[in-house]
Fold this protein.
Amino acid sequence: QVQLVESGGGLVQPGGSLRLSCAASGRTISIAAMGWYRQAPGEQRELVASITKGGMSNYADSVKGRFTISRDNAINTVYLQMNSLKPEDTAVYYCNALYFSWGTQYDSWGQGTQVTVSS
C-alpha cells in the first residue's frame, strides 16, 4: 500500500501563491504516477495536474500557465506550485498516487488540504 500526507494549504489573497506538498510512504517503488485533484463545494472532484515517474506532466486547462507540478523521486514527494491564484481555485486539494501491486492498479488518496483564495 501507499500512504500520502499533504501539507501547504491555507488562505491566500487573489494573485498570491501557495505550494502544496505530498509525501508518499509505503510501496513507493510501485508508484507510476502522482497527481493533484481538487473538489469545491457542490462540485465533482477534478484533476488539476499529474506527473509520471518519468516526469511527464499534464494540466487542466484552467490552471495551465499558473500551476506547476513537480516531483522529487529521491524523497517520494510531489509538489504543486500555484501562482496567480483566483477565487475559483478555492477547493480541497487531494494528492493521488497511481500504483501497481501484483499487476493490479490501485489509487491512493491523501486526506486533503484546504486552499482558500479570498480577499
User: Anything to note?
Assistant: The mean pLDDT is 95. The first strand starts at residue 2 and ends at 7.
